Amino acid sequence: MLINHTKRILTQPQTTSYILLLFKKHNSSISPKLTSSYFHHVSSLPLQYKTISQSFDETADKYPDHECYVFKSEQKRYTFKSFKHEVDSLAASLLELGFEKNDRFAVWLPNTSQNVAMTFAASKLGLIKVNINPAYVERELEYCINKVGCKGLILPPSVKTIPSLSIFHQLVPELDQSSRSRELSSKALPTLKHVVLTGDESSTSGVHSYNRLIEHGSKLSHEKLNERQASVNPDSPVAIFYTSGTTGQPKA
């Protein structure tokens, strides 16, 4: 083996020793032993004390016609302006339904446009978005909703082979006797008052159609929405996540 800067031939044992020496020297110079879980230091950038929705609104105002999101499986493309319209319309409708700050709203969805819109709408209203695995079965869904006391739930008719709406209906048979004009009353899920269904199954009893909420919210005055958003600060809780629950019940 020829080492350029030494200009001499090394035998195999010498080569191994030389490489080990270089490796040891390299590691000792740039890889100090970690004694902390994180490094705390002053940044050259100032802390932006803003909520998620405030940052999104500023970007939408600055780049309204720029592409914001592409959801290939849904065949949807959004500019910042069009996505902000959907977020504001959703938030305005949820506000009219009576959602207060710190209410928990369960999102039982995969990675869809409605999931992302709910993230920003929740931030505007000061709601706590509760992310629930869309593959959960009935008992897991019941546990997660009751664990943190969710007041709202958004779900799809199905996710691949999982019949989400049918699973929920088995858990809440009172859905048949409920209507959109009044709050849900469920024995299994006592804190749950409103259910939002994505997709085109708008005729399902006891649930709010996501598309209709967007349509209705676009006609509402956003004065109260702006007042609510102004009352939410960056220190307000914004989301709850669950562990997978492989060794027991999911942990929030």
How would the blueprint of this fold be written?
Elements: E1 2-3, E2 8-9, H1 12-30, H2 52-62, E3 67-71, E4 76-79, H3 80-96, E5 104-107, H4 113-125, E6 128-131, H5 138-148, E7 150-155, H6 164-171, E8 194-197, E9 208-209, H7 210-217, H8 223-231, E10 239-241
Parallel strand pairs: 5-6, 5-7, 6-10, 7-8, 8-9
Antiparallel strand pairs: 1-2, 3-4
Helix pairs in contact: 2-4, 3-4, 3-7, 5-6
Notes on the structure:
The radius of gyration is 26 Å and the shape is globular. The longest helix has 19 residues, at 12-30. The model is unreliable at 1-8 (pLDDT under 50). The protein has a single domain (52-241), classed as 3-Layer(aba) Sandwich (Rossmann fold), CATH 3.40.50.12780. β5, α4 and β6 (128-131) form a beta-alpha-beta unit. It contains eight helices and ten strands. It has helices spanning 12-30, 52-62, 80-96, 113-125, 138-148, 164-171, 210-217, 223-231, and strands at residues 2-3, 8-9, 67-71, 76-79, 104-107, 128-131, 150-155, 194-197, 208-209, 239-241. A six-stranded parallel β-sheet has the order 9-8-7-5-6-10. Strands 1-2 form a two-stranded antiparallel ribbon. With 252 residues, the chain is an alpha/beta fold.
